[in-house]
Design the sequence.
């Protein structure tokens, strides 16, 4: 899995604060799309969500490639456990916060 860097607190930044607020609105839009079963809107709003996330990562000097690598590794682990007959979720035989 991706190496974990030492956690350093971020300084407040108006740009990131505004992006974060927009991300919250985008998240709510995705939840609403799921609730009303609007597939087209979910695709559109999910794409907007990811774009906002990438903007926040860039503003905070976090390499998007590190995050995508972490997600791929979590999916790989989940698939590996499923093949082994292990249910990769809380309450199953295998517990991890690293699983999707």
Sequence:
């Amino acid at each position: 899995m991706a190496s974990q860097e030492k956690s350093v607190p971020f300084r407040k930044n108006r740009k990131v604060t505004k992006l974060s607020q927009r991300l919250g609105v985008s998240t709510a839009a995705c939840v609403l799309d799921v609730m009303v079963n609007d597939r087209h809107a979910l695709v559109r709003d999910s794409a907007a969500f990811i774009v906002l996330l990438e903007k926040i990562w860039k503003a905070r000097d976090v390499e998007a490639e590190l995050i995508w690598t972490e997600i791929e590794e979590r999916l790989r682990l989940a698939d590996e456990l499923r093949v082994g007959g292990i249910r990769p979720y809380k309450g199953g035989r295998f517990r991890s916060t690293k699983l999707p």
User: Anything to note?
Assistant: The chain has three helices and no strands. Helices lie at 14-35, 39-59, 64-83. The mean pLDDT is 83.
